[in-house]
Amino acid sequence: MLTDLSKALLQRRAAGLYRTRTISDGPQSTRMTIDGETFLAFCSNDYLALANDPELLAAASLGLERYGIGAGASHLINGHSQAHHELEKALADFTRFPRTLLFSTGYMANMAVATALLGRHDAIFADRFNHASLNDAALLSQASLRRYHHLDLDHLESQLTQTPAKCKLVMTDAVFSMDGDCAPIGDLLVLCQRFGAWLLVDDAHGFGVLGEQGRGSLFQTHFPENHVPHLIYMATLGKAAGVAGAFVAAQTEVIETLIQQGRTYGYTTASPPLLAHTLLTSLQIIAQQSWRREQLVRLIERLRQGLVSLPWQLLPSTTAIQPLLVRDNEQALQLSAALRERGIWVPAIRPPTVPKGTARLRITLSAAHTLAEIDQLTLTLRDLKNTL
Ligand code: PMP
């Protein structure tokens, strides 16, 4: 693979799959400034508009004063601060699990769960549309990996029936990151219980947004107060929560095992305590300011109404992730570029992030968007329908 990099890069470019980065200046929000030009942006995962919230910025300043900038070492050496400790307790309370454990990123949290809890003789079952971090975690665990058709519980059931493995883990995104649709968590739990399998729910895009007070996707499915023993919940803190990091929520023995054996927990510097300090405020805002979720619901409705009868299919999603299916890679890039020329930033998502032939514009909404801005996007897309 290292032998012909230039050829591989050229091929990638020819297939319309070359990835580029944009340098944006200033805070990321519903506006993005690139090379001095400002765009209306529909691409961030800052669903509740917390990333630049003044209350959070004030909390970050206090956290900086109290803890300084760096954690200094891993959690197992001396990087575990009072702020981390309090945040873990607050998150356990909020999600109604006995314990939680903080990670620097969601990617690392998923890695730790799969590699600390499973090994060569075990089996993992994963929805085909799961996030890459879950797939990578499964591969690194060395357990056998079978991927079931998207949301197809009959297919999953037939795979569970066939496996000889004693220890089984089913993994699913709660809200699928490139599609915006939701996993049937209640039904998955029932199925897992029937087969004695564990269930890992990755709620990167549901935590803070869905469920009562933003407690996450589990609370949309009548999550019982008395916790389910074989359920492991992972959510990220860099999306709706507006900061960075992630946590795993589970029974005490699971959390203790992750502390003992989670390599992406123990062998990395703890995230700066000022972030944990800030996240305590973020959690309060999530619980108390339901207007942010209500505004998102209004925006989603308006967008979906505005995007009917376009040549591109709006995928069936009720969440803040609203993908417009273009299919062809080049056409998705063209549509994204045409929007950009008109002052609107929506990224094109291509394989391998999504399956071949399903390139799309991934429109994401934030509580900071206005109805007028949604109309600006939909009217521009209607205009483009005739020119592209
Ligand atoms: N899971 C899902 C479903 C995600 O969308 C993401 C991030 N895009 C992650 C995990 C990884 O989270 P992080 O960005 O904190 O590494």
Describe the protein in words.
The protein is of the alpha/beta class and 388 residues long. The chain folds into two domains: 126 residues, Alpha-Beta Complex (Aspartate Aminotransferase, domain 1); 234 residues, Type I PLP-dependent aspartate aminotransferase-like (Major domain) (Aspartate Aminotransferase, domain 2), CATH 3.40.640.10. It contains 13 helices and 14 strands. The strands form three sheets. A seven-stranded mixed beta sheet has the order 3-9-8-7-6-4-5, with helices on both faces. It has a four-stranded antiparallel beta sheet with strand order 10-11-14-13. The longest helix has 17 residues. The two termini are 38 Å apart. The structure holds 4'-deoxy-4'-aminopyridoxal-5'-phosphate (PMP). 4'-deoxy-4'-aminopyridoxal-5'-phosphate (PMP) binds next to helix 4.
**SSE arrangement, N to C:** HEEHHEHEHEHEHEEEHHHHEEHEEEH
Low-confidence spans: pLDDT under 50, at least 5 residues? none
Helix-and-strand structural type? alpha/beta
What value does the average pLDDT take? 95
Q: Percent helix among the residues?
A: 40-55%
The DSSP helix count reads 13
Strand content: 15-25%
Number of domains: 2
Secondary structure layout:
Elements: H1 5-14, E1 31-34, E2 37-41, H2 54-67, H3 82-95, E3 99-103, H4 106-117, E4 123-127, H5 132-141, E5 144-148, H6 153-162, E6 168-173, H7 185-194, E7 198-202, E8 231-236, E9 246-250, H8 252-261, H9 263-266, H10 273-288, H11 291-306, E10 313-314, E11 321-327, H12 329-341, E12 344-345, E13 348-349, E14 359-364, H13 371-387
Parallel strand pairs: 2-12, 4-5, 4-6, 6-7, 7-8
Antiparallel strand pairs: 1-2, 3-9, 8-9, 10-11, 11-14, 13-14
Bound molecules: 4'-deoxy-4'-aminopyridoxal-5'-phosphate.
EC number: 2.3.1.47
Function: Catalyzes the decarboxylative condensation of pimeloyl-[acyl-carrier protein] and L-alanine to produce 8-amino-7-oxononanoate (AON), [acyl-carrier protein], and carbon dioxide.
Cofactor: pyridoxal 5'-phosphate
